[in-house]
Amino acid sequence: MTTSWSRSYCQEITASPEKVWAVLADVSTWKEWNAGVEAIEIEGAFASGVWFSMVLPDNEVFRSQLIDVSVPLHFVDATWIGETVVRVTHSIEPLPMDRCRVTFTANAEGPEAQDIGDGASADFPEVLVSLAMYVEKR
C-alpha cells in the first residue's frame, strides 16, 4: 500500500535570494552549515537531472537526483529509500528589505512514507537555522 506524507519548515534570512541560492547551489558548502552532511559529491553542474551522493555522519550514503532546478527560486531533489521516494523542495521567497524566506518541504510516497519522511526531515529546523547563520555571516 502506498501512502503519502508531507511536512514543511521555513526560516527567514537576512540576505537576498541570490546570496542564499549561491550557498544552496554550491554543494561543497553543505557540510559547513548542515550537521547531517559529512561529505557530498555532485556528478556535474547544479542542474535538473544531475545526481549527487551524500554521506551522513554515520557513513550511510544516499544517492539523490536534482529533478527540478529553477535559479534562484527553488530546487527539488528526489531520493529513493527502498520502495519509498522522498522529494524535498528547497524554495526561496523574496521579502522586503533584502530578506527572504527559505522553505524546505519534504514529500514522501511509498509504503514507509511517514517513517522515512519523519526521519529525512527531522533536522530541517536546525538545518535552516544553521543555513541562516552561515549565509548572514558571508
When the domains are counted, the total is 1
Gyration radius, in Å:
14 Å
Quick one: CATH class?
Alpha Beta
CATH fold topology:
Alpha-D-Glucose-1,6-Bisphosphate, Chain A, domain 4
Round the mean pLDDT to the nearest integer and report it. 97
Which tags fit this structure?
7-stranded antiparallel sheet; 4 helices; 138 residues; Alpha-D-Glucose-1,6-Bisphosphate, Chain A, domain 4; globular; alpha+beta
Question: Can you describe this structure?
Answer:
- This protein is an alpha+beta fold and 138 residues long.
- 22% of the residues are buried.
- It has a single domain (3-137), classed as Alpha-D-Glucose-1,6-Bisphosphate, Chain A, domain 4, CATH 3.30.530.
- It has a seven-stranded antiparallel sheet.
- Strand 6 and strand 7 form a beta hairpin.
- The longest helix is centred in the last third of the chain and has 14 residues, at 124-137.
- It has helices at residues 17-25, 30-33, 113-121, 124-137, and strands at residues 3-13, 39-42, 51-55, 61-70, 74-81, 84-95, 99-110.
- The radius of gyration is 14 Å and the shape is globular.
